[in-house]
Design brief:
Elements lengths: L1 H16 L1 H30 L10 E8 L2 E5 L3 H10 L3 E15 L5 E8 L3 H5 L5 E2 L15 E4 L1 H8 L9 E4 L2 E8 L15 E4 L3 H4 L15 E6 L5 H18 L1 H4 L2 E7 H4 L6 H36 L1 H9 L4 H36 L17 H26 L4 H4 L15 H31 L10 E7 L7 H16 L4 E7 L9 E7 L9 E8 L3 H5 L3 E4 L13 E5 H7 L9 E4 L6 E7 L14 E5 L7 E8 L2 H15 L6 E5 H7 L2 H35 L1 H9 L4 H29 L16 H26 L4 H7 L1
Parallel strand pairs: 4-9, 6-8, 15-20, 17-19
Antiparallel strand pairs: 1-2, 1-10, 1-11, 3-4, 3-7, 3-10, 5-8, 6-9, 7-8, 12-21, 12-22, 13-21, 14-15, 14-18, 16-19, 17-20, 18-19
Helix pairs in contact: 1-12, 2-10, 2-12, 2-13, 3-7, 10-13, 10-15, 10-21, 12-13, 15-21, 15-23, 15-24, 16-19, 21-23, 21-24, 22-25, 23-24
């Protein structure tokens, strides 16, 4: 310990003697380690942070899987009952359905997110109420007989001011009166990492609360998730095998509803992050981790270069210490201690950089991540441990080579005895290799930034298929007020009348599908005459009102749009998009053709073909889609579309008019269509912003590295340059000599970078829009830009070499 104290004391004194070097090193480390800590903070929040439940590793999620559909699907409630009653691998299995609900009774109605849960939900998770109680077995008994709910701690604080008297009082959800029986502990808002639940209602109240009440016992209605706790001694793989067997048994027992369906189990911790898109989050996190890893390697190479150059100035010091008896291991330990002190100081500063960076990332978060989300970017124990570990590894990584070189055996050279003047072409050394590595890694980062910037530009130029710049939207769900079809249709007519009367509104219409949203209906579609043995493909559908296509500016390419006579009692009709027409009736005129959808045996006739639009995501490939007339197909969830020349100015007036019609109806997604469109671009915008920042930082570090190596080379060859000038060499010759040597190093680094960029392109191919990961234009532009910056970085010290004072050099020697 005494020796360690001496090493630390000497390390701090050495760094304080060179405050400029220490400050620049700490700043470089703060940026390099800080970028890694920032990305790890996101990864930690999304994948590693434990769920607020008991024995998380014993909890599994169970899904349906479809042989024709990749991914994981919910189950129907009758199938859940089969899984619950006939499995032997979990001690308790519960069903959960996530629902949007209308909470009324206060000054302003509020849309809250809740869960319908079957018996034993809170006991399964090991969650106890902070106030009151959770559900008892009898609360999930007879249908409609237990109007009770458990409220989240967050909603209790936010809306009710933490009033303890709320327990036992009554509130209204979706027009139904419920008694609040308990409040969850702080920090528990369900097991979803993205969306927080505000209330929990027993499954026995399903038909009183859900708008899907008529499909509750439909075996084909797959809307429920399942969670279970493994029995002692049962592994996840064993549970998965058991549920797969049960899935096959269900397919045999109920072939009409379960044809081609199976079941699978996985750890709940994996299923808690948007299971349908988890692979995209994993891929994006892996890519960003690689990028910041490259940035840290550039930082290490840069600091190793600085320390190697600095070691030359300390050769005499090291020689004297060796001469008076210091062992080489002692010198290496001392120099590594200095490096570790630098890296730990940089790691401490990196926490501040990470904190600021996390704030910036949070501002670029997707629209579905509200302030109420359980996903929190915080510097918890795992993040602090990660930063400490990275700091220590970084210190060893950039400090080991300089330490070994400083303790080399040539004592005479270290003492400066008989130092020769080296002439001729300088050989590439360790410093040049480190600089070349920096150049290669920086080039990869810049190529990535260039690809994502081009991709973002392409996304902004994508035609979404409707006039987004002239539209305002708002959504609502009348089932949250308990409206039946008659009252719902009456409200729709009044909404259209009031919205159309707002000054400045050119047209208004309704549609059941929110713009650029994953919320929508997928229905199995079978064309007339299609082989009944073929599995019907699922197609998205929208129920729309009169004037929908005219209001949104979607052209009808063939046939006609919907007319007032397309109403209940008349022939059922539909409009399909171009992709669906080409898929089901290739080479034919789709107008006049018929198809079935859903469980209905009735046919609908195609009366028109509409131009393709973007329905779920801006970057989606063309997909089949069809529209149904609202007069023939009632839908309780609606989006009001308003066309106007100034949508920003009319969002609030339209909202007030609609709210006046139904004061207890919560209105959601009140915004312009352009706001919605821009919100859907969060992923490419976040990727472009991060990579541009990381690329700029990598470029700066690489430029500093090139400058430092070239300047060091000039310093080492100062006597040679002075002699050359004394013997008559022109300054231009000296300039060319130094720059040529630097260009060799830069060229090797760029060749390495191009090779890495081309070989790693597959990793980002799925994240780009309209640009290849091996796009030669981007590669050429980035290389040209980088070469120009690198040339300037090498020219500055080379130009200084031409101004060497010959007399001063010769007099010194």
């Amino acid at each position: 310990m005494e020796t360690l104290k001496q090493d630390l004391s000497y390390a701090f004194r050495t760094l304080f003697r060179k405050p400029g070097f220490a400050l620049s090193a700490v700043l470089s480390l703060a940026l390099g380690i800080g970028a890694n800590t920032m990305i790890f903070t996101v990864v930690n929040a999304a994948f590693l942070a434990p769920l607020p439940v008991r024995e998380q590793d014993r909890l599994v999620a169970v899904f349906t899987n479809d042989v024709t559909y990749p991914g994981h699907l919910p189950v129907s409630y009758p199938n859940f009952e089969e899984f619950r009653d006939h499995n032997e691998v979990v001690s308790n299995l519960v069903a959960v359905q996530f629902l949007s609900m209308n909470l009324s009774g206060g000054e302003v109605p509020e849309r809250v997110f809740g869960q319908m849960v079957s018996g034993g939900y809170f006991d399964l998770l090991g969650v106890r109420a902070a106030l009151g109680r959770t559900f008892l077995p009898e609360d999930d008994g007879a249908p409609g007989k237990s109007p009770v709910l458990v409220m989240s701690h967050g909603l209790w604080q936010r809306r009710y001011g933490s009033d303890p008297k709320l327990v036992g009082s009554k509130i209204r959800l979706n027009g139904q009166e419920f008694t609040v029986i308990g409040v969850t502990p702080r920090g528990f808002s369900g097991t979803d990492r993205i969306t927080a639940s505000d209330v929990w209602v027993p499954m026995s109240m399903y038909t009183q609360v859900s708008r899907f009440r008529d499909s509750f016992q439909d075996r084909s209605f797959r809307m429920f998730d399942m969670v279970g706790r493994l029995k002692p001694g049962v592994s996840v793989s064993q549970a998965d095998a058991a549920f797969r067997t049960l899935g096959k048994r269900l397919e045999q027992s109920y072939p009409d509803a379960n044809k081609g369906l199976g079941a699978t189990a996985m750890p709940l911790s994996e299923a808690s992050l948007d299971i349908a898109n988890r692979h995209l989050y994993v891929r994006g996190s892996l890519f960003l981790t690689i990028v910041v890893g490259l940035l840290l390697l550039i930082t290490c190479a840069n600091l190793a270069s600085l320390l190697l150059a600095r070691a030359e100035t300390r050769r005499r010091e090291m020689g004297i210490r060796l001469a008076i008896g210091a062992g080489r291991g002692r010198l290496i330990r001392q120099l590594l201690t200095e490096s570790l002190v630098l890296s730990l100081l940089g790691g401490a500063a990196a926490l501040f950089v990470s904190y600021l960076g996390s704030k910036a990332i949070w501002r670029l978060r997707p629209p579905f991540l509200t302030d109420n989300t359980p996903l929190v970017l915080s510097l918890d124990g795992r993040v602090l441990a990660f930063t400490l570990l990275v700091s220590l590894l970084t210190g060893v990584l950039f400090g080991l080579a300089p330490a070994l070189r400083s303790a080399r055996t040539d004592l005479a050279a270290m003492l400066g005895v008989n130092a020769p003047v080296r002439g001729g072409r300088r050989k590439l050394g360790v410093l040049d290799a480190l600089a070349a590595v920096q150049v290669g890694l920086a080039l990869v980062s810049l190529v990535g930034a260039g690809l994502f910037l081009r991709s973002l530009g392409n996304v902004h130029r994508i035609d979404v298929g409707f006039k987004a710049d002239e539209l305002a939207v708002l959504s609502f769900d009348v089932t949250t007020l308990g409206y039946d079809e008659a009252r719902g249709r009456q409200l729709y007519r009044r909404v259209l009348e009031r919205a159309s009367a707002v000054p400045g509104v050119d047209a208004a219409t309704l549609g059941s599908h929110r713009p650029l949203s994953r919320v929508g209906v997928l229905l199995p579609v079978r064309a007339e005459g299609q082989d009944l043995t073929e599995r019907a493909a699922s197609v998205r559908a929208d129920t729309v009102g009169l004037g929908y296509f005219e209001t949104l500016g979607i052209p009808i390419l063939k046939g006609r749009g919907f007319e007032p006579f397309d109403r209940e009692g008349s022939s059922r009709v539909a409009i399909v998009n171009e992709t669906m027409a080409g898929h089901y009736w290739p080479g034919q005129d789709a107008v006049g053709k018929r198809f079935q959808f859903g469980e209905s045996e009735d046919f609908v006739q195609v009366v028109g073909v509409a131009r393709d639009s973007k329905y779920v995501d801006v970057g989606e490939p063309p997909q089949s889609y069809f529209y149904l007339p609202l007069e023939q197909n009632y839908a309780p969830t609606m989006t009001l579309w308003v066309r106007t020349a100034h949508p920003d100015n009319l969002v609030e007036p339209v909202r007030r008019e609609v709210q006046a019609l139904a004061p207890d109806l919560p209105l959601t997604d009140v915004q312009t269509a352009m706001d919605r469109l821009n919100g859907s671009l969060w992923a490419p915008r976040l990727g472009a912003s991060l990579l541009t920042g990381f690329g700029a930082l990598a470029l700066a570090l690489a430029s500093i590295g090139i400058y430092g190596v070239t300047a060091y080379a000039v310093t080492q060859r100062r006597r040679e340059i002075g002699i050359r000038l004394a013997l008559g060499s022109q300054r231009g010759e000296i300039l060319g000599m130094v720059i040529r040597q630097a260009l060799v190093m830069i060229g090797l680094g760029m060749a390495l970078g191009v090779a890495m960029a081309l070989s790693g392109g597959k990793l980002v191919s799925s994240m780009l829009f309209g640009v290849s990961p091996t796009d030669l234009t981007t590669l050429a532009l980035v290389c040209a830009f980088f070469a120009a910056v690198a040339f300037v970085a090498s020219f500055l010290p080379a130009n200084r070499a031409t101004r060497t004072d010959v007399l001063k050099v010769l007099r010194t020697d």
